[in-house]
Amino acid sequence: MDIQNRTAIVTGASRGIGLAISKALIEEGVTVAGWSRTSPDHFNHEQYHHIKTDLTVENSVDEAFEKTVKKLGDSIPILINNAGMGYRGPMEDMPSDTWRQLFDLNVHGIFYVTKRVIPQMKNTNEGHIINIGSGAGTNGIAGMSCYCGTKHAVVGITESLHQELRDFGVKVSCLSPGSVDTGFSESNKNKLLPEDLAASVVHMLKCPKNFHYTDIQVRPLQP
User: Alpha helices of the chain — where are they, by DSSP H?
Assistant: First the structure.
């Protein structure tokens, strides 16, 4: 896809991977609607538009989509479903509200956002939806049962949606990193950087129309 002068929605765009992806897209000439509850600290750009959104609440997503279309137009060929949260600890110690919160954001949020961009992507026979997964989406991790469950769901949703939309010229991909330096876990000098993931996203988006990455696993070379 030629992404210059296109519009993208990036969820969870206020920091970490989402902010890095937003900056990388802007460098490529993309106008970004950054959906998150808070705006990024110390970042302003004429091609970046913060749209306040609570992705766990469908009405909030509806309002964010309406604001985005009103401000940037209804042609949105790029969606990066990045927003997510994690939890570490034994299942028996995990508060039920936290369990539900992870699924509301990591899984239901993808549903709320994606269903709104699909119709116009199908109408234009073009689009690319990239879901940011995790190595936890294919491997169980002790003490992270809920997070792993949500990321397994992301993988399954991506695979199914790919089958639904491929005949309409719409790509659906899952990018699943291993350890990324986002502050979620203990520091490690060999973690992937958010900018590494952002470069991968740009590469995936710029591939030829008939070339499609469906499921990409990326890891630090020396963890």
Answer: 16-27, 58-72, 96-103, 109-124, 145-165, 194-205
> Strand 170-177 vs strand 127-132: parallel, antiparallel, or unpaired?
parallel
Residue-range domain boundaries for the chain: 7-218
pLDDT in tens, 161-191: 999 999 999 999 999 998 776 654 555 567 8
Please name every residue paired with 215 in a beta bridge, in sequence order, or none if there are none.
174
CATH assignment of 7-218, among 3.40.50.720, 3.20.20.140, 3.30.450.20, 3.40.50.620: 3.40.50.720
Q: Give 162's contacts (C-beta < 8 A, 6+ positions apart).
A: 171, 172, 173, 214
> Cβ(56)–Cβ(73) under 8 Å?
no
Question: What is the pLDDT at residue 221?
Answer: 82
The catalytic position among 87, 112, 147, 213 is 147
Q: Is 147 labeled as catalytic in the residue annotation?
A: yes
Residue 104 phi, psi dihedral angles, 5° rounding: -60, -40
Phi and psi torsions of 24, nearest 5°:
-65, -40
